[in-house]
Amino acid sequence: MSSPTESQINPQAEPSGKGCVECLATSDGWWFHLRRCAACGHVGCCDSSPGQHATHHARDTGHHIIQSFEPGEDWFFDYAADAAGTGPELAQPTSHPDIQPVPGPDGRVPKDWME
């Protein structure tokens, strides 16, 4: 029998795209950083982003483990345990493209986003 953490991580699940699914579905959605669901590959925006879609996905689905979807970062976070950690290598790609701006996507970020 697998532990709850093991059932929350599917190394074969490919990311849902190069950006936050919900933000890209609107004409004005934007994000600061991206997070990837370790169970299903859903890419959502972080809690510093206006939509906080990664957290909403975790609450709505019960998929409580995410991995950073930022270049050069491989850390995991477990919402249920409120703890960061490590995990297995997930399916490629493991981050958004290096040329994608942060925040993003290009052309949607308000000029006053830091305020």
UniProtKB/TrEMBL annotation:
Single GO MF descriptor: zinc ion binding
Region of interest called Disordered, as start-end residue ranges on this chain: 86-115
A Pfam family it matches: zf-UBP
InterPro entries the record matches: Znf_RING/FYVE/PHD, Znf_UBP
Start and end residues of each UBP-type domain: 1-101
Domain of life: Bacteria
Record-given protein name: UBP-type domain-containing protein
Source organism of the structure: Gordonia jinhuaensis
